[in-house]
Amino acid sequence: MLSLGPKQTTAAGRRYVIRTMAFMAGYVAINLAAIFGAFDEIIGAPVAWALALAVSAPVMGQIWATLMLLRESDEFVRSVIAKQFILSAGIAMAIATAWGFGESYAGAYHLPAWIIYPLFWACFGVVAPFVRSSN
Amino acid sequence: MKNRLKLLRVERGWTQEQLGQALGVSRQAVNALETEKHDPSLDLAYRIAVLFARPVEDIFDNPHA
């Protein structure tokens, strides 16, 4: 999800890609299983919280992979990714807040809270090409 | 920060990748230094100075001088 060029060429970048793909494979697998009815019997029951936490775990793992990329990268890459990350998180929070109040006050269509994660990465994809300097 | 890093690198016939390896940073970091998109930390500036056997201020202009 992160990139400073057409491809990740550093060892830290390659480890990040592998870790992200591994976590996202878990995220997709659990969601696909849910979509195809594998957990229909527990939907709505308290035990479904286990399912909610299970599908959230890869997201936490992916954030960990991002933090490891920051730790393992050189000072320039670390600084640029941190800037991109903070800017994207701010934009995603602003959009989510505006939409949330739109739901409260303007009758906007309700969106599930989990959308903040893909929204954040969508914001990252838009922001990253414009943040190429650490200054 | 204005600097003579590219000149010094080219004088030695090094690529950005080779200089990055010598300094322990990525090629992107070398490119960012050369194009003034990254101001080096003191630690990195000293590593560069040692590598080229020159004082830091011979390589990087002191913006406060």
Automatic annotation (TrEMBL), chain B:
Keywords: DNA-binding
PANTHER family the UniProt entry points to: DNA-BIDING PHAGE PROTEIN, TRACRIPTIONAL REGULATORY PROTEIN-RELATED-RELATED
Name of this chain's protein: Putative transcriptional regulator
Single GO term (MF): DNA binding
Keyword DNA-binding included in the entry's annotation: yes
Family annotation (InterPro entries): Cro/C1-type_HTH, Lambda_DNA-bd_dom_sf
Species in which this protein is naturally found: Brevundimonas basaltis
PROSITE patterns in UniProt: HTH_CROC1 (PS50943)
Lineage top rank: taxon: Bacteria
KW DNA-binding (keyword) present: yes
HTH cro/C1-type domain mapped to chain residues: 5-59
Transmembrane portions of the chain: none
